[in-house]
Design a protein that fits this description.
The complex is a heterodimer of chains A (about 180) and B (about 350). Chain A contains 7 helices and 1 strand; from the N terminus they run ααααβααα. With about 180 residues, chain A is mainly α. The radius of gyration of chain A is 45 Å and the shape is rod-shaped. Chain B is an alpha+beta fold and about 350 residues long. Chain B has helices at about 5-15, 90-100, 145-155, 155-165, 170-200, 210-215, 220-230, 235-240, 240-245, 250-255, 255-270, 325-345, and strands spanning about 25-30, 35-45, 65-70, 75-85, 110-120, 120-130, 275-280, 285-290, 295, 300-305, 315-325. Chain B has a 7-stranded mixed β-sheet with strand order 3-4-2-1-7-10-9. In chain B, strands 5-6-11-8 form a 4-stranded antiparallel β-sheet. In chain B, helix 4 (about 155-165) runs antiparallel to helix 5 (about 170-200) and helix 5 (about 170-200) crosses helix 7. Chain B is globular and about 95 Å long. The chains are: A mainly alpha (about 180), B alpha+beta (about 350). Strand 1 (about 95-100) of chain A pairs parallel with strand 9 (about 295) of chain B.
């Protein structure tokens, strides 16, 4: 081997085993890791969101606090609504209706409900009154039921002459009492 | 010295509460959620010439006024004045009350408004309050039971309808009972007021037998004397005979001036010249509490008469609630979120 060939060989060997000098190696490694992570996350976005939103369920104190807060919120809601319903019911039993006729006599359940609705639904605006369809249906049904019961009663009285006579006599007495007063 | 005759005094007090041919006035407050109040006044009279400024509540040139002519229930002509104004808050109403130059300017009145946030609901409270006239009188509830108290607070028109409607006998008897008890209440309150004012005027000059405590101990005896001399009270008081029976001859002569002053003060308070009206309130949301009545159009109403604030502050109060829909939604979302999280946890 000539001298030149030896020098050439030595140079190649040095070049082979000489490592490249990396400037800012940390930044390069971070960039590579970021790119690898990005590729991985593209396929798992929805899962990631779900994990981040519901991650609290794996932290005991957060889980217990949120459940406690939800429970308190429900209790407060129930308490407030029960209190309001009780107030409205008490109000309906105390109110005096100053209408064009005589004052409201002792009222049955349906009338009481209607009165509650009158106060609760009708007072918010002076120009409109809202009435629940169900309540109207209930009113009509109870009226029809009363009508049929009254017809049955009249039929029973007409069939029995003794009963008819007795009822007529009692009605006459009532009328006379009122006249005397 | 003013003429004194308890029966006449009490009768005059009753007459004061009755209509004196003045316009029938209805005041309606429409309360808005932001605390502003639209106030409407409606005055009806059978006479043509009546001024809107001479009304039972503050009303001036800043109000929007409309005149109209209507036919009454009996077919008579009614002149109607309607006025309206929106107040930004109750403080403006209170300022108007303070600077009132109308018929009831001498009666301290004010309004209050409160708004409370309760997360699911917002609670609104509106009150109109009239301060009491007599400082030492008795509450009327000490003299009337619950049914009689209800009757006492009914508007006059309603009382007349009930006395002339079905069960009129029962209601007439109730009316008579209430009238007698109210008369008794007024006499006792008048005597109590006189005793207190007389004691105040005597001050440190009073001897033991004329101390406030001693006079109060004799209150029932004074009431009995007043009722006994009902017919001739005026002349007997002028002659000092009744005062002698109250506090003895020597004290009656010595303290007659103070006694007369105390009587004048007490009677002025009893016969305060207040012109009645009707107050109505429309609240936002659902009404959950109130101490008035409901009129034929479903609106809260209170008759305002001098008897009602004679010995106690008259508070016309209404409370209503408006649901906060956004709070319901936020709470619903939060509770659903927590429930779903709990379900996931259980499954996991």
């Amino acid at each position: 081997m000539t001298k030149t060939e030896e020098q050439y060989k030595r140079l190649i060997t040095r070049l082979r085993y000489a490592k490249p000098e990396l400037k800012r190696a940390d930044e390069l490694s971070d960039e590579i890791i970021r790119k690898i992570r990005g590729l991985r996350h593209k396929g798992l976005t929805i899962q990631g969101i779900a994990d981040s939103i519901f991650g609290w369920i794996y932290i005991p104190w957060v889980r217990r606090s949120l459940i406690g807060a939800a429970f308190i919120l429900v209790m407060v809601f129930v308490y407030q609504q029960v209190f309001i319903i009780r107030q409205v019911r008490d109000l309906s039993s105390k109110i005096t209706n100053i209408s064009n006729g005589t004052p409201t006599p002792s009222i049955p359940e349906l009338d009481r409900k209607l009165t509650i609705y009158k106060i609760s639904a009708g007072l918010s605006s002076s120009s409109e009154t809202k009435i629940n369809d169900n309540k109207i249906k209930e009113l009509i049904e109870s009226y029809e039921s009363l009508q049929s019961k009254y017809k049955d009663l009249i039929r029973i009285i007409d069939k029995n002459p003794h009963l008819k006579k007795y009822v007529e006599k009692e009605l006459e007495n009532q009328r006379n009492l009122k006249t005397n007063l | 010295m003013k003429k004194l005759k308890p029966g006449l005094v009490i009768s005059m007090a009753f007459l004061m509460t009755a209509s004196c041919n003045e316009p029938k006035t209805v005041v309606t407050n429409i309360v808005h959620p932001d605390g502003s109040v639209t106030r409407k006044i409606e005055m009806k009279s059978s006479e043509k010439n009546f001024r809107i400024t001479n009304v039972q509540v503050p009303c001036d040139s800043t109000w929007t006024v409309r005149d109209s002519l209507e036919i009454g229930e009996k077919g008579d002509t009614l002149w109607v004045k309607r006025a309206e104004k929106t107040f930004t808050d109750v403080e403006e109403i209170n300022l108007a009350y303070k600077s009132d130059s109308g018929l009831n300017k001498n009666f301290p009145r004010h309004a209050e408004f409160k708004k409370r946030f309760r997360w699911f609901n917002t609670e609104y409270t509106f009150k109109e309050i009239i301060d009491k006239n007599m400082h030492y009188g008795y509450p009327v509830s000490d003299f009337l039971d619950s049914e009689e108290l209800k009757w006492f607070y009914y508007p006059d028109s309603h009382i007349e309808k009930m006395k002339n409607g079905p069960d009129s006998i029962k209601y007439r008897a109730l009316n008579d009972t209430v009238d007698k008890k109210v008369e008794n209440w007024m006499i006792k309150s008048l005597v109590s007021e006189w005793i207190a004012e007389f004691s105040n005027l005597l001050g440190e000059n009073s001897k033991n037998e004329l101390s406030a405590e001693s006079l109060m101990n004799n209150e029932d005896r004074f009431v009995t004397i007043v009722k006994k001399y009902d017919e001739k009270f005026d002349s007997l008081w002028s002659n000092g005979i009744i005062l002698k029976e109250f506090i003895g001859e020597a004290s009656a002569i010595k303290y007659k001036t103070q006694a007369d002053s105390a009587v004048n003060i007490s009677i002025n308070r009893l016969l305060a010249d207040f012109r009645d009206y009707t107050l109505r309130t429309i609240m936002p949301g659902k009404v959950t509490e109130m101490n008035g009545m409901i009129d034929s159009s479903g609106v809260l109403m209170w008759p305002v008469k001098s008897d009602y604030f004679l010995t106690q502050t008259y508070e016309m109060k209404a409370v209503s609630k408006v649901p906060n829909i956004w709070a319901w939604i936020v709470s619903g979302v939060f509770i659903s979120f927590v429930i779903y999280g709990a379900i996931i946890r259980k499954r996991g």
